[in-house]
Amino acid sequence: MEQIARADIAAFGTGRAEMANAVIEESGIRVRPERNRGRSAGINPSGRFEPLSRDVFDDGWNSIEELPPFKTEVQVEKPRTIITRNESPDISFDRSINPYRGCEHGCVYCFARPTHAYMGLSPGLDFESKLFAKPDAARLLERELAKDGYQPRTIAIGTNTDPYQPIEKQYRIMREVLEVLEARKHPVGIVTKSALVTRDIDILSRMAEQGLCKVALSVTTLDRMLARTMEPRASTPTKRLEAIKQLSEAGIPASVMVAPIIPGLNDPEIERILDAARAAGARSAGYVILRLPLEVSPIFKDWLLRHYPDKYRHVMSLIRSMRDGKDYDSEWGKRMKGSGPYAWQIGRRFEIAARRLGLNAERSPLRTDLFIKPKKEGEQLMLL
User: How far is the CA of 328 from the CAs of 291, 296, 310, 318, 379, in angstroms?
Assistant: First the structure.
């Protein structure tokens, strides 16, 4: 890591020094481009719980150590439970599973980035490159479903980090979790940015026949260049639309999430994304306005300044107009959709386009009455 030189501000062009200075003061350090190739975050600040922060600078002796590019590292995590509960009033589910911690997709706007601070790591590049896998997830799930008093409700997967990120090809944790859910006839809702979800069409199609699953693909843009810089290791927009098509043709309820909508950057594409998703077979759609909690704000602003400096002021002005003048407002009911005239306009555009395309015309809840409770560990099976 290196402190961004004040002289380098000139690279952003005349009139942008104030913006660059603001980002420098907020983020502190920027990683050299050759070290974060294929990543979206350009900074790797210390986590907010760390007692010390590190600031590397050039002392003029040309002694800065040449560090290697960030490589993906995976550690095994051994949690005691796998189902996470929540009581958020503006979320439609009360339980979820996260097979992985951190996400190699590296979406610069990911609201889950701050969770890496709990591991003593940075929400910046560490979040994209230092990952944690939970190979015991399926076994833990079986055990938790067997607990006395367990009441089945839809389990959401992909609400924090993507269950089909690249390392799933090796670890196959998501597939094992689906095998348990299918065997126990337990409903599941999946959100992903990866075409890898089509690998599990065999399981998902059988569950769909019984009303036990639905899948949403998040499509933020149809612009490959924007997607490449903003979501560098997620599937391309074309691959995500193809995944919707394959899921739909297999009888699996597929939907599209235009999430997040970034005002002044991808919001002009709302109608085109919905058109393309409907043509691919999507039955329903939803959207979320960009969220910039905690460390996500300086990471996103640094990215915006590096890739779209001419749009920096406009985009941040629109974001703040929807967040009561702040980068983010966590108030229930506002955090997902924003507030103010611009947020209202986005909402109406989305609703009109969805209605025109026949999206969200029918909503069928997933079934819970088919649930088969597993035997507890060590419990003897009945002979008859």
Answer: 6, 10, 22, 12, 50
Q: Within a 13 Å sphere around the CA of 259, how many CA atoms are in the beta-carbon half?
A: 21
Digitized pLDDT (tens) for each residue of the chain, 384 residues in all: 333 333 333 344 444 544 554 444 444 467 777 677 789 999 988 888 888 776 666 666 665 566 777 889 999 999 999 999 998 888 889 999 999 999 999 999 999 999 999 999 999 999 999 999 999 999 999 999 999 999 999 999 999 999 999 999 999 999 999 999 999 999 999 999 999 999 999 999 999 999 999 999 999 999 999 999 999 999 999 999 999 999 999 999 999 999 999 999 999 999 999 999 999 999 999 999 999 999 999 999 999 999 999 999 999 999 999 999 999 999 988 999 999 999 999 999 999 999 999 999 988 899 999 999 998 876 655 555
Architecture, CATH, for domain 6-357: Alpha-Beta Horseshoe (3.80)
**3-class state of residue 321 by DSSP:** helix
Closest by CA to 161, choosing from 131, 121, 124, is 131
CA dihedral (114, 116, 120, 126) positive or negative: negative
Residue closest to 31 by CA, chosen among 70, 61, 60: 70
Under a CB-based contact definition with an 8 Å cutoff, are residues 28 and 43 in contact? yes
Of 13, 42, 50, 7, nearest to 26 (Cα)?
42
253, 209 in Cβ contact below 8 A?
no
Residue the block writes with tokens 């337990």: 186
Three-state DSSP class for 158?
coil
Contact of 327 with 289, CB cutoff 8 Å: no
Reading the block at residue 15, the tokens are 């009139």
- pTM for the whole thing? 0.89
Cα distances (Å, whole numbers) of residue 34 to 30, 100, 111, 133, 381: 12, 27, 25, 27, 59
Could you tell me which residues come within 8 angstroms of residue 221 by beta carbon, excluding any fewer than 6 positions away?
227, 230, 237, 266, 269, 273
